[in-house]
Amino acid sequence: MIEITYEFIVGLFIVVGGLLTLAATVGAIRFPDVYTRNHAISKSTTLGVTMILVGTLLYFFLFEEHFNSRLVLAIMFILMTAPISGHLIGRAAYNSGVKLAERTVTDELERDRKKGKQANSL
Amino acid sequence: MFDFVLYITLLCISLAMVGLVYRVIKGPSTPDRVVALDGLGINLVAIIAILSIILRTSAFLDIILLIGILAFIGTVTFAKFLEKGVILERDRDNL
Amino acid sequence: MAFQMLLNFFLAFLWMFLKTSFTPAAFVVGFFWGLVILFIFRSYFPDRFYLHRVVAIIKLFLLFIKELILSNLNVLKHVLKPKMDIKPGIFALPIDLQKDWEIMLLGNLITLTPGTLTVDISDDNKILYIHAVNIDDVKESVDSIKNTFEKAIMEVSR
């Protein structure tokens, strides 16, 4: 009985993680430009993979009584580095001149940069 | 039942990777491809985790950390290359 | 903070040597008694008891997990909607934090809040530029960013 409960918990973590990962890919295919795609991948994939790793950790802890500290390290590492890589790609895309999608409403960064250029040229 | 759930999730992630490969091939700009490659690296981590449960072995768990680190380094390198055109800056005066 | 922590580790090792048992359990017990001793003598240290800061860090981490889940639900909603009616945009957010690592932490947390992603920072470290999936529901979330995250980070660094 308790075995089935454990399997249910681990399975829930893993299935939700897999579905989140799939949803991230749907977002990456459907969204109109780099920045919005970056949203989908850097968030949903992170949480999805984190949940799968937590499920794996629980599985090895509950069934094989083997607490794998390297998995904890991997979870911490992925949680720490995912926003950094998302921000880096976003900045690189903006600075290398990738256009925002046509439905974009405001771009205050471009406005402020133009203002800075005018101030410098004066 | 538990194994069935694992195989379904494996299928989900494989489909996700196929979608990301589509984005890598088609992606209108280079940053699109880099974003998709980053996602591919992280999905690979998930696949290894699930495979190690299916095979009931903890031998692959070390590889998870390794691939996570490699994916991060790859993304940072690509981002730097896109932004500055070089990866390792030699002249320290321009920092 | 570093000095108090070092002292605590020293007390834990002292406990282990006094008990002549070098197991992790003895270390944990020694660490606990060291914590009690540090707590009793807390008014003799120049800065505040370091457990306060540890509690603040744990609170920040829980907040981070909560926002990560909420942001995923938000993006999921936009992804799975059959008709895409998003209005992306970049907006500016003035910040009050000064130290580099505080700004880095805030930027990372914003990247994981509902539908926002840090794109750039101004040269004088005063303004963050944030890309949002849907600019309409961002106007309220700016207030929540300023109230929850900046306050939690200040709690840690105070």
Structure explained in plain terms:
The complex is a heterotrimer of chains A (122), B (95) and C (158). Chain A is built from four helices and no strands. Chain A is mainly alpha-helical. Chain A has one domain. The model of chain A has no long low-confidence stretch (mean pLDDT 83). With 95 residues, chain B is mainly alpha-helical. Chain B has one domain. Chain B contains three helices and no strands. The longest helix of chain B has 25 residues. Chain B is flat, with a radius of gyration of 17 Å. The mean pLDDT of chain C is 80. Chain C is mainly α. Chain C is elongated. In chain C, strands 1-3-2 form a three-stranded antiparallel beta sheet, covered by helices on one side. Chain C folds into two domains: 43 residues, no CATH class; 107 residues, no CATH class. Chains in contact: A-B, A-C. At the A-C interface, helix 1, helix 2, helix 3 and helix 4 of A face helix 3, strand 1, helix 4, strand 2 and strand 3 of C.
Please tag this protein with its features.
heterotrimer; A: 122 residues; mainly alpha; 0% strand; B: 95 residues; 78% helix; flat
Q: What is the oligomer described by this structure?
A: heterotrimer
Strand coverage percent of chain B: under 5%
Question: What's the helical proportion of residues of chain B?
Answer: over 70%
Morphology of chain B: flat
Number of helices of chain C: 5
Low-confidence stretches of chain C: none
State the largest interface.
Answer: A-B, 51 and 49 residues
- Distinct helical segment count of chain B: 3
Short description:
Chain A: GO terms for molecular function: sodium:proton antiporter activity. The complex is a heterotrimer of chains A (122), B (95) and C (158). Chain A has 122 residues and is mostly helical.
